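Throughout this chapter, every protein is written as a compact record of paired, labelled lines. An example of such a record is reproduced below:
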Amino acid sequence: MTTLSPLGIKRVDSLHFYVRDLERSRALLVDTLDFAEIGTSSHELEQAGKQRSAAFRAGEATFVLCQPLGEGGRAWRFLNKHPEGLGTVVFEVEDAARCFALLEERGATTISDVETFEDDGGQLHTFSITTPFGDTTFRFVERRGYGKLLPGFHSYQAPAGGRNSHGFTVIDHITTNFPTMKPALLWMEHVMGFQQYWGVEFHTNDLTPEASHGTGLKSVVMWEPVSGVKFANNEPARPHFRSSQINVFSEDHRGPGVQHVALEVSDIVCAVGRLRERGAEFMTTPGTYYDLLPQRLKDLGIGEIEEDIEVLRDLGILVDGDQAGEYMLQIFLQELSQLHSDPEAGPFFFEVIQRKGDQGFGAGNFRALFESIEQEQVRAGRI
């Protein structure tokens, strides 16, 4: 892989979701996920951008929900083509001008020049680019004492709503599905300067080749080593390419796009217990997964884990790890379209993850996840 100069990315600053029903999405973030609402769009921004926005934060994870106000705005253009979903990834960078110059030199398609905004605290330098991630764009911001989340946003004096009782800390990774992912991988390498971090190929028919349906994928994780920002990228695999859940996502989303965002926690057992108390719905895990788990952990070289397997079974939490004895735990919330009984809510979902040394992506859990998604698709008559 080509090694390029880093863009100076510091972190994922915020993620912008384009939604048709801001109140419905606000209820999920605040009432269920216990995010705090930290600000809202000004009247002037709403008039200029033709959309109403609200920002929410838990730990270092910041989400911005944007609902169209009439036609012509960014949210309206996204939702005119897709169901609700993640439409903009915002990165904080060290030097916006340098980042812009590097991206232009490497052939990035810039939407705007670097723009500068000022408030009482300082300056914000920002610009955006298109991506191969469907209609999801990347935005880069450099903060020099600038206090607002973004130009035109009003920050509340005190956050409203949630208190992050689940203990979300950071965005662990972002996962995107493509009908074909190679162009995106090359773009991330040669334009963004990311490097390959991890990969796996998997199919449910590996153990049941006689099955009349199944689902599989090829997955490659790209990362920016300085910041640690990671993107997991998936494409469908044969056989049963069209019925694979990766392809079904692309059809439901009407093109490539972000499938899920993983939120890291320090205690997943407590977090999932509290989420369930608040009415969160999760993808189901086959009971046989936990029957086989002790032997699988032994085969992985993990041995004993701190958590009680029966507690994990009750909560539906998955476990995976590596030969070094380190492991990770993860669980996936229900797709928003299933949660809201509305196809236009989109196939996006959240993951909750706790890392106990292992920095992988749950290759051993793919079968359980895929079987779960397959079951949902069979129930919905999709396959």
About this structure: The chain has a mean pLDDT of 91.
